[in-house]
Amino acid sequence: MQIITTDIIVVGGGGAGLRAAIAAAETRPDARISLLSKVYPMRSHTVAAEGGAAAVTLAEDSLDAHFQDTVAGSDWLADQLVVEHFVKAAYQELVQLEHWGCPWSRKADGSIQVRRFGGMKTERTWFAADKTGFHILHTLFQTSMKYPAIRRLDEFFVLDLLVSEQQVLGVLALQLNSGELFQILAPKVILATGGAGRLFHYNTNGGIVTGDGMALAYRHGVALRDMEFVQYHPTGLPGSGILITEAARGEGGILLNKDGYRYLQDYGLGPETPLGQPQNKYMELGPRDKLSQAFWQQQQAGLTADYQGHAVVYLDLRHLGVQKLAERLPFICELSRSYVNIDPVQQPIPIRPAVHYTMGGILTELQGETSISGLYAVGECASVGLHGANRLGSNSLTELLVFGKAAGEHAAQSLPPMPRSQSTAATEQAQTQQRRLASLFGGKQQQSIASLRKAMTLAMEQGCGIYRDEQGMQQCRTTLVSLQQQLAGLKVSDHSKVFNAELIQYLELSFGLEVALTLCESALARKESRGAHQRLDPGLTQRNDQDFLQHTLAYRAADGRVALRYQPVRITCLPPAARVYGAAAKQGA
Amino acid sequence: MPDSAGARRPYLQPLSRSWWLKHSFFLRYMLREATVLPLLFFCGCLLAGLYSLSQGESQYQSWLAFMAQPWVIALNALVLLASLYHAKTFFELFPRVMPLLPAPLMIAGQWLGTLLVALFLLWLFGAIG
Amino acid sequence: MEKTIIIQRYNPEQDQAPSAKRYQVPFDHSTSVLDALLYIQQQLDPTLAFRWSCRMAICGSCGVMVNKIPKLGCKTFLRDYPAELTISALDHFPIEKDLISDMAVFLDHLQAVKPYLINDSQNTEPHRQTPAQLKKYQKFSSCINCGLCYAACPQFGLNPEFLGPAAIVTAQRYNLDSRDQGKAQRMPQLNGKNGVWACTFVGFCADVCPKQLDPAAAVNQGKVASATDMLISIFKP
């Protein structure tokens, strides 16, 4: 086992991790920053974000409006202090990215162009055509090459955090191309490992989005907060789940059921807005949870169409015309032609909801600090408190930047003067893990890891999908526990060291099952409907602020089971109110 | 990247001498590069012609006789074909390097230019009009 | 319906060189090469190693040779091939295992061209950049770093020190950006013997680029820039 000592470890090379690494390098150019990632950083899933990043930009917009949209969008489960901080810092972060070269789309006069997005009162979403995440990721990745302090460790898979007496000591990682173990020691570790969308069968996420970082922290006693809130994106391609950006609706795309009817007007999002005149917070520009739920209702009513065995509705972009599609949504056209063989210029695109984002994650403070000293979490793996029960589209790319920077700076500023070069506690822990790793190998197996994984994703889809009920979730929990036991009995049959895919899938599944259980348990215990968590059980179909205006905290109990606690929601200035869109919002205002 | 011991043993297939036979695209590329060979022959002819001029009439006459041999004419026909092929590839590549106008327009412009120059030279040497 | 997938397998812990293995894979109209590889790994042989993630042609992980042509596995469909197709690791990179190649050399080349905006301005507001100025470099900013162009480039195959198409595309991307002032710092790399002049305009990189951003054009536009730069430096006192 090799030992590396360094000052700051960033785990994950997506938007949040890169932003944190750069912030740390700018704060302490003399520090040694190790950027670990299980893939080359530019493969990280930030790359697939399409629509844009939100910040108050137009003169007629205000921080208050962004704050209110975000809090209402969260169904009042967002931490209002965090949201205040976020909306204030957002603009400067997008400008910073502009200064690093991000090719933001422009108006004719050369100023920044902003577009409409669901749940937002006015246009405030910066975008780079329909490849915003791609451009943000590559801008950050390429900018990170400027800093000699940042040392990349590409294709390193973190097996465990090294922790002693509630102080982080570093990480234990596997170098994928050699199979060698590395003890990497640092007083600061920033987790930026992304979400856990791959727990579900239909999802828009890349294969690497397996919830690793959440499980790493959870196993060391850090709480996972609000895990029951999982965002279904209303427009994924059938089968693959490939994302068709919300910007398609922001630009004027409409949703139709099998009869060509704009069904959203039947679900509190109307009245119907005229074709080609999308209006913020109405119809197709309602929030994602409401739109995905409307799909489910249509499916129950038998009003969805069939595309190769998948229930679908249609996203119609034809009226936008060839030129606008080519300029604003080129990637969407390319995806649609390649993966469903449909040219959006000629035909509507079949779509269906798919899991997109995990609102919950590792409980952190404003600067990303967790309950373990020296351990931070940022981005989708974290729950800093921005999204509550439902995330608004285009808030998360900005989140990566705002909180990535905060964590990187905080970690760099609070570096102890002399890092430890050796630690017996760390070595002991690493050796235990090494033995555990060795014990995972065995002979040829009856069952495959792939089959267990599939069983997990189907169970989650069934039990913890768009609508949930007690019985379904209990069944899901039973399945998950059984799968955990089956996995524990399973051995890895491939004994090779170099790029052992089976081993990595085993480890990812064991992380994933742990995270899935926290999700299921948190959902079972939340006996109300709020945001993305919608229950069908009688009496639980409404929001219940009396009992559940609270965050769920999932801890790992000594026996490995999930222990739940609750945390009050911080409300600074916007008291809970009914969450309404469309014409109803106007009446309320 | 830290050194890693043991199991890692990257395999690098060296590029074989015949790499350009592997794919028709590479073959076309080599053909383009090979157009220089017939051109070399043509240049040799031209230089020999010039030299023979300086050596007096009889030398020049025997050069003309040499040029009139069927195999020399055949080779020079090949030179023409090769040059045209090279011109075609060049004209198609040029708009990508200097994207001044839409590519089809630039390609057509270059062919037109070639044609005009050719006509001018033919006129100059009295072959036409 | 089934097709035969022949994969060049290489396990550095056992094999001296890659060797072919055949698999039968069911397919329908939407089955991609990546789907086929996942099927093999999940159903037939869990030891098969390959990279993938986004499965929507944007992360750049799944580049492989399909019938000797560099392709993104997720954007190449079995329906377009005859009954048999051969898949191997990207040409010109060292093979770590099966379909996984070592991309380190590419990342080194990328870093060498200073792929970031160089500009000292301390302004706290965004630069102005008109859509026309954006358009000048926009295409070249769409490189997904998949490495297909390197696998298509015989010059890179002959000389791995050659910066190669994608790195030069990225250099051009920044050189053409109206906000950038770093061209002078990038030119020495581009002018050098492993820079733009090592390219002989084979042009295959442009054919295989999954984002159609014509790296060959970028490299050869780089030659124009390089020649101008060298001429200027001759006449400068």
TrEMBL record, chain A:
GO biological process terms, semicolon-separated: anaerobic respiration; electron transport chain; fermentation
Coiled coil: none
Keywords on record: Cell membrane, Electron transport, FAD, Flavoprotein, Membrane, Nucleotide-binding, Oxidoreductase, Transport
Primary localization class, coarse: membrane
Residues noted as binding FAD in the record, renumbered to the chain: 12-17, 37-52, 212, 380, 396-397
Compartments where found: Cell inner membrane
Catalysed conversion reaction: a quinone + succinate = fumarate + a quinol; a menaquinone + succinate = a menaquinol + fumarate
Membrane topology: Peripheral membrane protein
Domain of life of the organism encoding this protein: Bacteria
Domain Fumarate reductase/succinate dehydrogenase flavoprotein-like C-terminal: 453-581
Active site: residue positions: R288
GO MF terms, alphabetically ordered: electron transfer activity; flavin adenine dinucleotide binding; succinate dehydrogenase (quinone) activity
Residues involved in substrate binding: H233, T245, H356, R391
Record domain FAD-dependent oxidoreductase 2 FAD-binding: where: 7-397
PROSITE patterns: FRD_SDH_FAD_BINDING (PS00504)
Known EC number: 1.3.5.1
GO terms for cellular component: plasma membrane
Transmembrane domains' residue ranges: none
Needed co-factor(s): FAD
Family: Belongs to the FAD-dependent oxidoreductase 2 family. FRD/SDH subfamily.
Oligomer and partners: Part of an enzyme complex containing four subunits: a flavoprotein (FrdA), an iron-sulfur protein (FrdB), and two hydrophobic anchor proteins (FrdC and FrdD).
Protein name: Fumarate reductase flavoprotein subunit
Species of the source: Alishewanella jeotgali KCTC 22429
UniProtKB/TrEMBL annotation, chain B:
SUPFAM superfamilies in UniProt: Fumarate reductase respiratory complex transmembrane subunits
Species this protein is from: Alishewanella jeotgali KCTC 22429
TM regions (residue ranges): 29-51, 63-85, 105-125
GO cellular component entries: membrane
Pfam family, one: Fumarate_red_C
Keyword entries, A-Z: Cell membrane, Membrane, Transmembrane, Transmembrane helix
InterPro entries xrefs: Fumarate_red_C, SQR/QFR_C/D
UniProt protein name: Fumarate reductase subunit C
Automatic annotation (TrEMBL), chain C:
Required cofactor(s): [3Fe-4S] cluster; [4Fe-4S] cluster; [2Fe-2S] cluster
Keyword Oxidoreductase found: yes
BP-aspect Gene Ontology terms: respiratory electron transport chain; tricarboxylic acid cycle
Organism: Alishewanella jeotgali KCTC 22429
Cofactor note: Binds 1 [3Fe-4S] cluster. Binds 1 [4Fe-4S] cluster.
An MF annotation (GO) of this entry: succinate dehydrogenase (quinone) activity
Reactions mediated catalytically: a quinone + succinate = fumarate + a quinol
Family: Belongs to the succinate dehydrogenase/fumarate reductase iron-sulfur protein family.
InterPro entries, alphabetized: 2Fe-2S_ferredoxin-like_sf (IPR036010), 2Fe-2S_ferredoxin-type (IPR001041), 2Fe2S_fd_BS (IPR006058), 4Fe4S_Fe-S-bd (IPR017896), 4Fe4S_Fe_S_CS (IPR017900), Beta-grasp_dom_sf (IPR012675), Helical_ferredxn (IPR009051), SDH/FRD_Iron-Sulfur (IPR050573)
Residue ranges constituting the 4Fe-4S ferredoxin-type domain according to the UniProt record: 134-163
Pathway listed: Carbohydrate metabolism; tricarboxylic acid cycle; fumarate from succinate (bacterial route): step 1/1
Keyword Oxidoreductase found: yes
Protein name: Succinate dehydrogenase iron-sulfur subunit
UniProt domain 2Fe-2S ferredoxin-type: residue ranges: 3-93
One Pfam short name: Fer4_10
Signal peptide: none
Keyword annotations: 2Fe-2S, 3Fe-4S, 4Fe-4S, Iron, Iron-sulfur, Metal-binding, Oxidoreductase, Tricarboxylic acid cycle, Ubiquinone
PROSITE patterns named among the record's database cross-references: 2FE2S_FER_1 (PS00197), 2FE2S_FER_2 (PS51085), 4FE4S_FER_1 (PS00198), 4FE4S_FER_2 (PS51379)
EC number from the UniProt entry: 1.3.5.1
